[in-house]
Amino acid sequence: MTPTTPQTNPVTSDTIEALPAGILLDIDEAATALRISRSRLFQLVSSGQLLSVKLGRRRLFRRADLEAFASSLAPTPPAKGSRVRTSGSIG
Predict the structure, then answer these.
(1) What is the pTM of this model?
(2) Rounded Cα distance, 33 and 47, in Å
């Protein structure tokens, strides 16, 4: 079996718009929109990098806050000496 490198897809407003209609998203919907795990989502909230609201016992995320967070992320160049694999190439 050939090892595969997971492909990361950029988070775009299209990704967020593809979620169920509504201004507020639950934890699973927000993690899916950002393509991160639930634990990483909680880390971002606790560090103050991502805003959320509490309604009763539920933690919810405003669609606009997810878009603002995704827009604030700067692309990073590959590490020096690393090879970047493009889709379809076998290395």
Answers:
(1) 0.63
(2) 19
What digits encode the pLDDT tens for the residues 6-35? 444 555 556 556 656 678 999 999 999 999
Q: What's the token pair of residue 34?
A: 């950002």
Which has the closest alpha carbon to 50: 39, 28, 65?
65
Torsion over CA of 82, 83, 84 and 87, rounded to 10 degrees?
-150
Q: Per the structure block, which two tokens stand in for 30?
A: 């927000």
Cα–Cα distance measured from residue 16 to residue 30, given in angstroms and rounded to the nearest whole number:
8
3-state secondary structure the chain: CCCCCCCCCCCCHHHHHCCCCCCEECHHHHHHHHCCCHHHHHHHHHCCCCCCEEECCEEEEEHHHHHHHHHHCCCCCCCCCCCCCCCCCCC
